[in-house]
Design brief:
The protein is α/β, with parallel strands linked by helices. The protein folds into 2 domains: 238 residues, Phosphoenolpyruvate-binding domains (TIM Barrel); 32 residues, no CATH class. Helix content is 39%, strand content 14%. The protein has 11 helices and 8 strands. Helix 4 runs parallel beside helix 5, helix 5 crosses helix 6 and helix 8 packs parallel to helix 9. The radius of gyration is 20 Å and the shape is globular. It binds 3-methyl-2-oxobutanoic acid.
Amino acid sequence: MSVHSQAKRISVPQLMQYKGQQKIAALTAYTAPFARLLDEALDMILIGDSTAMVGYAMPDTLSITVDQMAAHAAAVVRSTQRVCVIVDMPFGSYQESPQQAFANAARMLAASGADGIKVEGGAALADTTRFLVDRGIPVLAHVGLMPQYVNTMGGFKAQGMTDESAERILQDAQAHEQAGAFGVVLEGVAEALGRRITETLAVPTIGIGASPSCDGQILVTEDILGLSGDRIPKFAKQFADVASVIRSAAQQYASDVKAGAFPGLEHCFGVKK
Ligand code: KIV
């Protein structure tokens, strides 16, 4: 039996209890149709700032705003009933100070109704995590490959490949756990490091290109549905070819319109039968 049995939204404390009991299945969603379809299968939905690249065709995640993320998150909350909904804090909205982070995170949660927020950052950001958690904001930390640090990392590169870098990422994860983070996303790290962090922490780890040993897994939904074009990362697996379904429906629609076969009178108003 699952940890939760009531038919209501999975809370952050419930998600934490999954550690050692059952794996956490998570995906991203940015809009109502996707959120509605994902609600039943998953434990957690993340409104990732990856929507900057996936949904807005931006070159990186740095330009998405709090208002944009809040609007996406509100749509996802309104369209789901049972998943735990976590929203990414965008670049520049929390790094300046714990106070800035609290003001923007509180605005994000108030505007969206999400259950918690995610922040990217190493041990240097742990004070901010503590500040938020102490004031009632559940925090999911994101360490390893942090897309918001693309310019300081020199690209989207796997992390933790040397002993020194692995040690630092372990310390980053531990610092956030000690600061009260309810979980840690491990992105693009060496498999052995993902396993080690998962064994070390008492809170769940959620891997993306990390390790099968992580307490949960998350992927970008468009990647698993074949909607990301050629940009599928090594760590993603395509579970369906939705692109072909959409292309074929669009072709059928266009050819029906051009042939005058759509709309039929049954799609029109005021037509007597
Ligand atoms: O923005 C995002 O989609 C993420 C990943 C962890 C999926 O941060």
